[in-house]
């Protein structure tokens, strides 16, 4: 059974950093593409970043390019999202998901329950 569990969210000041983790189980991480999405209150869920199964290629939404970095540690079955230079507009619940190499919500098959990130002074 595929399971995804996010952690690492919290309250951070603007300009600060957080690292989110997505702990996976029930499948071999090397064979799956994993994506990060976020959903702010009252808004649609949007793709943030994605790391491919085949060669660890990455995708980023324009809004986070240069600030966020996605990576994977297959030995720990974990995917990370390093978030730097955080802005108030990054406030959202962050989800990890498995699916196609894409930032489209409909391309994802399995979802975690999310972790809340709040950027505020």
Question: Would you give an account of this structure?
Answer:
With 121 residues, the chain is mostly beta strands. Helices cover 0% and strands 50% of the residues. It has no helices and eleven strands. The chain has strands at residues 3-7, 10-12, 18-25, 33-39, 46-51, 58-60, 68-73, 78-83, 92-99, 108-111, 115-119. The strands form two sheets. Strands 2, 4, 5, 6, 9, 10 and 11 form a seven-stranded mixed beta sheet that branches. A hairpin with a 6-residue loop joins strand 5 and strand 6.
Features:
single chain; 121 residues; mainly beta; four-stranded antiparallel β-sheet
SSE topology sketch:
Layout: E1 3-7, E2 10-12, E3 18-25, E4 33-39, E5 46-51, E6 58-60, E7 68-73, E8 78-83, E9 92-99, E10 108-111, E11 115-119
